[in-house]
Amino acid sequence: MVRLVLHDPDLLEARAPSKELAKVVVDLGRHQVSIGARPINLTNKEFRLLTHLIENEGETVPRAELLDTLWAGEPEPRPNPRTIDVHIRRLRVKLGEFEDIVHTVRGIGYRFDRHADVQVRAA
After folding, report:
1. Do residues 103 and 115 make contact, with C-beta atoms less than 8 angstroms apart?
2. Confidence class of residue 16 from pLDDT cuts 50, 70 and 90?
3. Which residues contact 29 (CB under 8 A, 6 or more apart)?
4. pTM
């Protein structure tokens, strides 16, 4: 009740009718993904992977580019390109029924296309 009286933007947005239309919410500023009202626990690499795909919406992102993005500035050596496939598989499992928001482009990489059930909030 206090949050409502103080006009908490998150609470007001949650009560808005448009909120009901988006089933998956990717909040780039908070580094959080939720399905309905349930937050999804993504690892840092899974979140960065999803974020990079969203930033390149509609474009096929090669595995090598994803590796460069996820392992940039890290002291460990760059892993095998198939490592991305493992991260994608884990991400899809966590997305459950919405796993199809990440498309596989066979032999090249992955792509995120705008989806009616996905709402992306900018940072």
Report:
1. no
2. low
3. 121, 122, 123
4. 0.78
